[in-house]
Specification:
- This protein is an alpha+beta fold.
- The protein has 3 helices and 6 strands, in the order H-E-E-E-H-E-E-H-E.
- The protein has a single domain, classed as SH3 type barrels, CATH 2.30.30.110.
- Strands 1, 2, 3, 4, 5 and 6 form a 6-stranded mixed β-sheet that branches.
- Keywords: Plasmid.
């Protein structure tokens, strides 16, 4: 769910979309997971977003013929095992560590300016 939708009081995402699982943190009440949206709409230049290279789209099982961006200035959080939104399906693929880890490090440095949408309220 986009932050602008949550701000309007919406509780469900308008469509299913692929996401990048950025961080999974163990907790006694269930692991906290951060999800970054993947979109086909080119983000504004002020947005912290990265276009997914062709090889990474293939690794992640995404549509290689479409331009895709991972958005890092807003993210969703949820609790594994207590979620109404997570579906128990296997991942469709994964990004390489060489591509994704530097982006996560950059996100950590900017996290305070990112918008969180909690899915476990």
């Amino acid at each position: 769910m986009w932050a602008r939708e949550a701000e309007r009081g919406e509780t469900e995402g308008r469509k299913e979309r692929p996401v990048a699982v950025g961080v999974r943190m163990p907790r006694p009440d269930g692991d906290l997971v951060l999800f970054f949206p993947i979109t086909t709409k080119q983000p504004d230049v002020s947005c912290f977003a990265v276009e997914v290279p062709l090889i990474e789209k293939r690794r992640a099982g995404l549509d290689a013929d479409r331009r895709l961006w991972i958005i890092f200035d807003e993210f969703n959080t949820d609790i594994v095992g207590n979620s109404f939104y997570l579906e128990p399906e296997p991942p469709i693929g994964r990004f390489s560590k060489a591509f994704f880890l530097p982006l996560l490090r950059e996100f950590i440095g900017r996290r305070k300016s990112a918008t969180e949408v909690s899915r476990f309220r």
